[in-house]
């Protein structure tokens, strides 16, 4: 078990960069990524050309500056990353309010592209193409299963993910009261019927079918996004779901594991995730507000 890093210094706001700073703080306090950045394992073999921006190298510099004196480290202005926003996230501009979750996705995708391939022994079964250290820490896979209601034939595919994005509002308007409620809704069975029937490979005909998502390969570090912003509200605008949504300090993911359908409840190993970082948005709409974060250290 890798120890949680001690708290680092703060990050200076460079003008509507709270979304960026909050995400960066959560990332550099992520155990495995922090250790990798601290040892400068990427820059030792980085092939960037002179003057070219490398996000991995910039994060190494950020860790060196903000963790030099632990929590007593002075606030650091991450200008190199802020100035490179358009290179990290297409359409992003310095000085403009942006979405933290969207930024996180862009960051993880860029780090995946910049990262070096890991040894083949670390590659999970079924994963093809380049597989990096970043993916080994954050990437998981969902099992998408469609089962014919007529003959029982199953079609299973794996969908890789770097985070789980969960709806809070269910059909009918009810808001999930907690993280388990949102995840249960995500994994709920749905039926393909009527004009949306499934073409069964075994039957060779359009059939009513059951579809469900479950976690096939859990990541080492799990990122969960709660969809608090809703679109198409009355008047055609957007709004925010401000209802309280509870989440535990330790979350058990085993009940949503595909292994449970194969091994049964008693034989499925536990999948505990301990909370170490949270990004929060304070504000009532998608166009204004302030992001901040909490990290465990």
UniProtKB/TrEMBL annotation:
Molecular function per GO: cysteine-type deubiquitinase activity
Record lineage: Eukaryota, Haptista, Haptophyta, Prymnesiophyceae, Isochrysidales
Similarity comment: Belongs to the peptidase C19 family.
Broad EC category: hydrolase
EC number: 3.4.19.12
Domain named USP: residues: 9-297
UniProt KW Hydrolase keyword: yes
Name recorded for this polypeptide: ubiquitinyl hydrolase 1
Keyword Protease: yes
Catalysed reactions, as listed in the record: Thiol-dependent hydrolysis of ester, thioester, amide, peptide and isopeptide bonds formed by the C-terminal Gly of ubiquitin (a 76-residue protein attached to proteins as an intracellular targeting signal)
One CC-aspect GO term: nucleus
GO BP terms: protein deubiquitination; proteolysis
InterPro entries: Papain-like_cys_pep_sf, Peptidase_C19, Peptidase_C19_UCH, USP, USP_CS
Keyword field: Hydrolase, Protease, Thiol protease, Ubl conjugation pathway
Chain segments annotated as transmembrane: none
